[in-house]
Amino acid sequence: MNFSAPFCTRFTSINNDRKRQIDTLKVFNDNVTEITENTEYMVEFNAGDNKLAMLILLSPDFPMEKPLLKITPSISHQWVNENSEIVAAPGFLNFTVYSDLGRVVQAIIRDLQRNPPPLRHKESPVSVINRSKNLDHVETNSSSEDYEQSFEVMSSVIGRLHKMTVEELMKLDENEESLDQFISELPHVKSLKQTVTDMINCTDSLNMENIECKKKIHENEAQVEEKRAEYQKHSEKYENLYEEYRKLAEIRAPKNVKKRLKQKIASLDAESETVAENFLESNMTMDEFLTQYKALRMEVHALKVKEDQVSQRMQMDGSTP
């Protein structure tokens, strides 16, 4: 990259050509509105009963390349494509750096005024113009900002070079350190360096935060492992207690209680029958018989009462007695 005197002269010439073209636009046309300096312009005019506007968008390479011309609102015309861009006007087709932008735009407008084209959509002129301005500005906003930014950077560099002497320019061309220093002192380069520095600082800060977070993660992992071991211990204890509960619940189940009561009652009935037989066979006295038999029958009676209570409870619970 050589910033020599011819280089500076070339870009200064392009800048002057661009300015001259914009000046011709304002000289040969009325109602010229500057939307974005050096980039976007609008010319309003009447064509028959319709109020139209031509938008002129200049790229960073203008006038080395053609401008973008658009008509709003949309019209039906052989020079205009479906995107409302002028593509086939005679003067526009042969546009070069030596053409006059103002005369080209003027010729197109005059032809449209002599032969008013129909609108593609019928709307009021004022609303169409306002809406077209807004829509076109939205559509070209991003590109216009890019063009403007690029042009500002180029203008800044050219301006600084233009103020330098031939000796200083030759030094830039011959001395790499001087060129590096010149570049590093450019405003947009300084801004980029500051952005890089800020990003590095931000990255370092995030890195420190990540290290702290990593420590906390390890601590939390240890706590989780401890809790997991504790949970395992309590889980095993719970399983043992639950098994014990299940066995006790099985024993205390009404049907099993009733079954054991029946077995006990049957056993006592058999025992009381044995006592009666022994008495009849004179194997015991009257007092012994009465004492033993009475005790057995009372116990049987008490057990039968409990059995009835269990049966009633089972009926209330919907279980089969």
TrEMBL record:
Residues 208-278 form a coiled coil. It is found in: Late endosome membrane. Residues 235-320 form the VPS37 C-terminal domain. It comes from Parthenolecanium corni. This is VPS37 C-terminal domain-containing protein. One of its GO terms (biological process) is ubiquitin-dependent protein catabolic process via the multivesicular body sorting pathway. Belongs to the VPS37 family. It comes from the Eukaryota.
